[in-house]
Specification:
Blueprint lengths: L1 H13 L17 E2 L4 H14 L19 E2 L11 H4 L3 H22 L1 H11 L1 E4 L3 E4 L5
Parallel strand pairs: 1-2
Antiparallel strand pairs: 3-4
Helix pairs in contact: 1-2
Length: 141
């Protein structure tokens, strides 16, 4: 998050002649685009906060005065350019590659982090096992 915020600050400095100075009342001029995976949307929001930092938003909106700048994304199945493996023509290759990675690495990864998996399993009431299966063990605690 901090790195994305720093990237936003860099963009603000680099494009200072193009971006509004001081307060900016959103007028549709700026928007961000993110792949629709939550981690990418969060990263884009952090970068947007760096470009339009606290204190530059509308007066009276909130004490911190954040700026409201939209982050656009796509609908499931529509993102064949930015998300080619999941939505586009590469879906079969992605599935094949995931299965190959699992066969080669999953057991070793599980053994390396077995204690963590057991702790999470106990806390959540699930038995996390290699093979992509989550075994239900009663009600979550």
């Amino acid at each position: 998050m901090a790195e994305n915020w720093e990237n936003g600050r860099f963009l603000r400095r680099r494009y200072r002649d193009f971006l509004p100075e001081g307060e900016y009342l959103y007028d549709g001029t700026f928007a961000f685009f993110s792949e629709r995976v939550e981690r990418n949307i969060v990263a884009t929001a952090a970068m947007a906060r760096g470009v339009f930092p606290l204190g530059t938003g509308m007066k009276g909106f909130s004490s911190e005065r954040p700026n409201i700048v939209p982050i656009s994304t796509t609908q499931d199945g529509a993102d064949v350019l930015m998300n080619c493996p999941r939505d586009g023509p590469c879906q079969r290759a992605l599935s094949r590659d995931k299965k190959a990675w699992d066969r080669e690495h999953e057991e070793k990864y599980y053994k390396t982090h077995k204690e963590l998996f057991e702790t999470i399993s106990k806390a959540c009431g699930f038995d996390l096992k290699p093979g992509g299966h989550i075994m239900w063990e009663g009600k979550p605690k």
